[in-house]
Structures
1.
Amino acid sequence: MEEIIDLLEQNRLSELKEILLNENPIDIADVFEEFPKEKCLIVFKILPKDLSSEVFSYLSPEKQQEVIENITDEEIRFIMDEMYLDDTVDFIEEMPANIVDKILKNTSSDKRKLINQMLKYPDNSAGSVMTVEYISFKGSITVKQAIDYYRQVAIEKEETDICFVTDNKRKLVGLISLKTLILSNDESLIEDEMETNIISVQTKDDQEEIASLFRKYDITTMPVVDNENRLVGVITVDDIVDVIDQENTEDFQKMAAMNPSDQEYLKESVFSLAKHRIVWLLVLMLSATFTGFVIRRYEATLQSVVILAMFIPMLMDTGGNAGSQSSTLIIRGIALEEIEFSDIFKVIWKEFRVSLIVGMILSSFNFIRLYYFERVGFGISFVVCISLFATIIMAKVIGGVLPLVAKSLKIDPAIMASPLITTIVDTAALMVYFKLAVTFLNI
Amino acid sequence: MEEIIDLLEQNRLSELKEILLNENPIDIADVFEEFPKEKCLIVFKILPKDLSSEVFSYLSPEKQQEVIENITDEEIRFIMDEMYLDDTVDFIEEMPANIVDKILKNTSSDKRKLINQMLKYPDNSAGSVMTVEYISFKGSITVKQAIDYYRQVAIEKEETDICFVTDNKRKLVGLISLKTLILSNDESLIEDEMETNIISVQTKDDQEEIASLFRKYDITTMPVVDNENRLVGVITVDDIVDVIDQENTEDFQKMAAMNPSDQEYLKESVFSLAKHRIVWLLVLMLSATFTGFVIRRYEATLQSVVILAMFIPMLMDTGGNAGSQSSTLIIRGIALEEIEFSDIFKVIWKEFRVSLIVGMILSSFNFIRLYYFERVGFGISFVVCISLFATIIMAKVIGGVLPLVAKSLKIDPAIMASPLITTIVDTAALMVYFKLAVTFLNI
């Protein structure tokens, strides 16, 4: 990095070029992000054209826009020719309208047609993730013909080791790996060597379902077909890694009571961050007032034994934590397809037994602390510990059940996480607590 | 599924075999999981041997054990010959000692040596994830020689389209894809065609770091070298998908205050579930008592204005939720390497501005509700809303800062999530609340 800056400042560009040629394009793109505009453009222009367009595809949208605004139409045309179609579509989606015009003007009409078609697929669908740069041929040709064909077209295509086999109507009938092509006899027919037991998805399928197919079948390349089973594209596993990250980020956000956003934190505006957070905070604040009503109802009880208030935070926090432990495990189990709605009774029975153990330990611990160390008297120690025990059982069972119920109602289980569970359990916990206090302390 | 059961019951085994031959081995393994032992064994034995060992590698450890206990030594030997080494190691790690003996007895001594070596790598290290079934050759041979060599050895190796190039001391010097092999001139030397700009990892590197390399460089195959840069194995992207799932599950568990466990929920024992949950619950329960001490300190205040207790849950819950929103975004940003410790001032400034907006909206909303609808009087409405405002600011700034501080202290940022933030914010919120109450309500 410092070396690059030094060379740039001393204008020793040919030495700089030598160094950059040995670097990974992704690392060069990283360096660009740190550089001021003028320096980027100088470096960009000394790179050989195929390397510069590869570096370009790894830049952040902000840098890409900066570059596009400052290079010639001819240079834009070269980048558009070189970039893989799925990267091009991702890039165009991030650009403002005037830049998009400038880009499309410099794109060949064939490619422009494909780009427009891909821009129409709904967000997060197979169509929006796939690339159309796959290799396909007919089953009636020989292995040798297939390899010759591969040699002609492969340079332009995205790195993949799977070729597809289609019939006369472009319908997908099989696939064959480079490995099989190399291992097969030159004169064999493709249709005799190909794999016909294929897993494929449709253009409108959701990316989350596609990710679970990749996970389940350990595949690296997935064909995408239209509703007449005609091959239209391919999804590779490196794109699925991004999908998995994105889906997990969404789950984390929903579980922390936020509307999901796919922007990076440091790049998202303050207003947009606030907007994604405010709705759930309002809803949960209003539901927390129900817990307040429970306290108001027992105002007289509290007035005569004010010390009861001292244990409210401990009961609320422990209940919330116990519940969110359970709901998190169940939500995650549902996301990884390890737990289904039909397991609900197994979950209840398991959580009940876990909560007995956990509740017993926490309550005993608390009783000793309250009775022997804090010396708040037997009555109050007893009421607090029984309430704690009951709270933990409720919290764990509710935390285990609600995500499954949500799933069966086709609501995203992730919203049944810590914040919502906490609010529900809080109210129940305080009701039990005051009820027991009134009964046992004769208030 | 029903069809399979019907055919089994009518003992029409050859028809059944026909059907199964067209199924994906992973789907057959799924069917096995639902079947009682006797049926599994019947089906297992009618499958051709290579298919049956593939099905075997996809079974759950419970089913694998069942099968191993009920087949002959010869059948075990066949499975051990056919299974990929990394699957074999995963399988052996799950078996009880007597089964492991039975298995190793029926494994060739070469393979046994490799298995023992791989069992020694630490959990979650590159060595424990890699497979040793890669293809490598010298750079001095021609493309044609390389393809001939590939034809001889590839059938036995795990599906991969990358071959490695090593020198005389087995040191890794390059890699070449099947695509490049096919596209290159038969007489070219491998060393002229290979890619030398390689990203590799060492056997002891942590799988989480390896996953981020896969993510960053969009690669599908990663060579693993020892500390003298000698090639010892390879990690493929399908294994990395599992690693990403596992790392995310761990983060979810830590963020819900649990010690991480890599067992599936439905398969984990009640005792083990309780053990993973109890420690954090105890710690957090004890810290929540600090919040209780704040209340005790203001017992007199509470005695004279009992209604103040009514707003404790709302303040605690909203503070906790506001803080966990921020901490979740920061924790996730750190995990995806989008946020670093050096961004701490950007984060503070951003969270401060977000909390101003969010705090303003929630407080105004609350003031209107308390003053006009609940009619609790201006003083109390005012104190509650100012406390709420202050709580939200504290919560968001603390929630943003603590994960970054943890990261810089080399503590896992994921533990700075909802539960811990909630407890810290609770105490601070109630201190502000009572302080303001004493000051403004002249108690």
2.
Amino acid sequence: MIELRKDPVTGRWVIISTERALRPADLRYDAAAPKDGPCCFCPGNEHTTPPEILAYRPHGSPRNGPGWSLRVVPNRFPALRVEGELQKEGVGMFDKMSGVGAHEVIIETPEHRASLAELPVKSTEDLLWAFRDRITDLERDSRLKYAMIFKNSGARAGATLDHPHCQLIALPVMCREVSDEIQGALHYYEFKERCVFCDMIKQEMSEDVRVVTRSSMHVAVAPFAARFPFESWVMPIRHSSRFELSDADEMKSAAEVLHGVLRRMSAVLDNPAYNFYLHTSPLRTPAMAHYHWHIEVLPAVTTVAGFERGSAFYINPVPPEEAAATMKKAGV
Amino acid sequence: MIELRKDPVTGRWVIISTERALRPADLRYDAAAPKDGPCCFCPGNEHTTPPEILAYRPHGSPRNGPGWSLRVVPNRFPALRVEGELQKEGVGMFDKMSGVGAHEVIIETPEHRASLAELPVKSTEDLLWAFRDRITDLERDSRLKYAMIFKNSGARAGATLDHPHCQLIALPVMCREVSDEIQGALHYYEFKERCVFCDMIKQEMSEDVRVVTRSSMHVAVAPFAARFPFESWVMPIRHSSRFELSDADEMKSAAEVLHGVLRRMSAVLDNPAYNFYLHTSPLRTPAMAHYHWHIEVLPAVTTVAGFERGSAFYINPVPPEEAAATMKKAGV
């Protein structure tokens, strides 16, 4: 069973996906494959994944063979399935939908034990290009509304495989977190006639107490109301609602800042487990004056428990000013 | 520093509380105190906690001494502080507020190694009475808007102490999760002139495929759009928006169902880590026709990772119909 169901109270959608229960859990996987590799994502094992959707490889090197520097494949244990029609159905008062969508794995590097923080900034840049390429491609599928790209790194952050990778889940409905952001940002815009992120960036760059690092066109800040210790947001300094419209210079600049955050976080917290995700506009949305794409980086150093789940309130023991100052210094 | 800060995009509040960083972490605490007790919550150690706020103890037994069956004390490492005035302030475009609130610990039993599931249902009933007593008392403090009562059981669910306990955090602002529920429920009510929870209960009890257990006046269901495997909601069958107005018969009936859920969950998942929390009306709110109090019980068996954080979408590998059937059987 793969289906989407809607909570009738809050409107929150969930994916009920029994196929995910079959995927190798941390321990079972680690028991089967040596910690140091090679694993199914390593060069030479291309045949163990479904055929590649995209790969960055030297001109002429054969598909689904070694030689690539980055590779995108369908997830073998998908949360959603790309085949089939999108069917919507009522079950008494409840609403459900067939589990149509895409679930892809972006293998960041051929090196099993590498990490984005240690690899040259070029790897981060390639990764952002892959995000752009996949969003642009998936945009053509009119069944899909949002492409959520995220990274789980380390078991504590939900990673089940060690080999560096990101994931992309494209959804046939909007996700609540981005909807809430867009609505909140629209509310601010209607009040002020300005983008809330642009205002935030302006204040942060002028106060300079929560800036973690910056490049020519991007900045990373520990947000004023950070939920987690050392949480950092990477944002374009100039207004832009769609990440995937970034040009080559912008991709390079964004990669520098994201890489800078990961490198500093790794130094300060001794290579912590972490998540990041890209918040950009929904697929096929025209440019919005009120929304601003960004990447949120969240080290997994605190436990989200009953209070956070029950209230959606967070308790953060490290003020973002301290986090930013520590991370800033780590880059010197 | 203890202060509340608001995210200018989504309106989500966070607590920045550096004092929490001082509290004993799982491992450090376990290293200091023997796993089997006695700990600071055990009888005989009453002097190691701040003075009790409430205790259920035989008539005449002295305060802050042994003899109690349930005891409520202030948290020694509070996320919020009960002293001081509620001051609200702008910081450029940002909003903050002094960290005024209450943070209490409800020690459920004198027995260090007990669990609600194993203890007689009377312990669960006493616990619900303590929830009621504390909410009723805190309601008199006009600075406070919401009392969130929750339980973290097991390290994986965020518990830092083994001795069975719940916590209460009373907040000077509404929490987003309950606001979202109330707003969603109001939206439904405006459309249908009926409470969404009442409709849900009616359908669940008539279909009987997601009912976990029931008593004379309460029912537990695995919700149609469950986020987590074996997630269960305890709800009064008859409409009621305020838990704290429950009478003695209702408290007994609610305790039977909550205890039944915990007992079944413990049997099916082999004593898992879990959270539960009470969602009731904000403090001092008149009865609402559209909202319905309930307790959400969430076993901590899956990892919330980048996708869930970035999208607020959840992937649940166990259909609630299966979870309910398994739990129902476990009670026979």
